[in-house]
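Journal club prep — side note

Before the paper discussion, L.F. wants everyone to see what a predicted structure for a comparable chain looks like in token form. Sequence:
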Amino acid sequence: MKLFNIFRNIGLASLVLGGFSSCEDFLDRPTEDSYVVDGFYQTDEQCRQAVNAIYNSPWYDFQRGFFKIGEVLPGNYYMGSSPYLTFTINSTDEDLVNMSASLWSVNAYCNGVIENIDLKSGPGVSEEVKRNVKGEALVWKAMSYFYLVRCFGGVPIIHNNSSDIASGGYNSLYRAKPENVYEYIIMTLEKAIEWLPESDITKNGRIDKYTAYGLLSKVYLTKSGLNQNESRNADDLAKAAMYAGRVIDESGRELMKNYSDIFRLKNNVSSESLLAWRWIVSNIWTSQNTLQSDLGITGIDEYGATWGGYGGPSVDLQDAFGESALSLTRNNHDDRRQATMMMYGDYYDYFWTDKGGLDYNYFCSEYETGPNEFQCPTGANIVKHIVGNNADHIAGIGHSMSRMATSLATHILRLSDVYLIYAEAVIGNNGSTTDAKALEAFNAVRQRSVRGEAAKTVITWEDVWKERRLELALEGDRWYDYVRLHYYNPQRAIKELKSQRRSTYNGLNNYYKTGVMTDEDVYYEKTPDIPNVTDASFELPFPDTDLTMNPNLKKDPVDYDMSVYSY
């Protein structure tokens, strides 16, 4: 696999830490010219610096795959002729190759930190810091495997890099069965819970015990459907509810009052964010968030490197929000819609703050450096993952952005997700529930954003399924909901994907500029709507680079002896 090739040619130490100097203490790392692994890990601060890198750099090459798999594949986002839109991804796809390499690199970083803490930490390092740092690495390791198993199904388990390299068998490992991988993820998170502090005492967004509880609840909810038929494993559902309940009841965390505030730079660290990639603009390329460049509408910043204007939130996602790009007025009954997608008539006071805000209509059609057109044929552009211009970046975090680089955190697990996990786990196989705590969790999420919404007194699985889509839209998570649905109800997953409106409108630009619509000129293009979704679509192909390095990946997964693994 590409990971192993990296290890063979570069070595473990250089993967664990790279040169970096940050303006945020939390992300400080040792400089490359002064870092030698045998002389490092001698103080509490050095051990913390060792794990800081895992919050951004090794995830960098996953960013495009994260969005294309998470949102284009499940029909939430239109991206031109992307193979992720049409389910025609092959093993040479560049984003697939980079995503796989990135996830394996995360695992390598995590294994390296854990091994170095155990073998090389000096007598001045406290046992508490050793445990905390290893706990952080374990959560990131579990997260990488959680992505891997949901993307590829069975994958090899690489528990200790040095051992695998020393054995000489690192290019011949077999894939573990998905149930083995889930068992490994659970074991990893359970040990992380044992080692992590109750809360992030730095208040800088570091992982704590409740991060691990929240992720473990999501793992159990996903695993509950594995190898099941229609219904899900009751024990797994009970554990999902139990761990989610601990986050809700014991963590002291609360939902932010204003939904759109979650995604602003000033709130990179918040009570709602349990796990996030913590990006920073720096002199090291892989430390930054580049999603604004890929997704942002042309001209939204000064750097001339935003090329996402012709893609945008899908017609199907607009339907889910009760919106229509064929209307010149917005219903705005759900605050999440405007915080997720820009549409005709929208105004944003948190973008272009130095210019009095961003008026979407004026920006698209009249502003001198704007695109001079409404670019996306779905009638919407993305809001999440967007910072705005440099003045917005400085106002939000105190320093400038750069070309293809922002410091906006990418939230991987939010508190509202855990609330909805709890509600769904309590519903379980019953179809609906009137459980007071499940209702409270569901209503808290929905009523935050839907004005005048009466509290529900009964919730169904369908209620939670739709709420998850609206709440987490365009946050890189939707495809994995379909994967777990396909585990136990493949027919429903396939049918729903095939029924989506994934195509575009004709004539929107002229319609928005003139305000005149005729059926002949403005209409929905139906032809590319139905993707070729089959059972095989729910496991992505292994990249050809991985298959070349390890031909055993072409073979069926095998049972691993899980008793040999421990921390």
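L.F.'s comment for the group: The domain at 2-285+537-564 is CATH 1.25.40.390 (Serine Threonine Protein Phosphatase 5, Tetratricopeptide repeat). Keep this in mind when we get to the figures.
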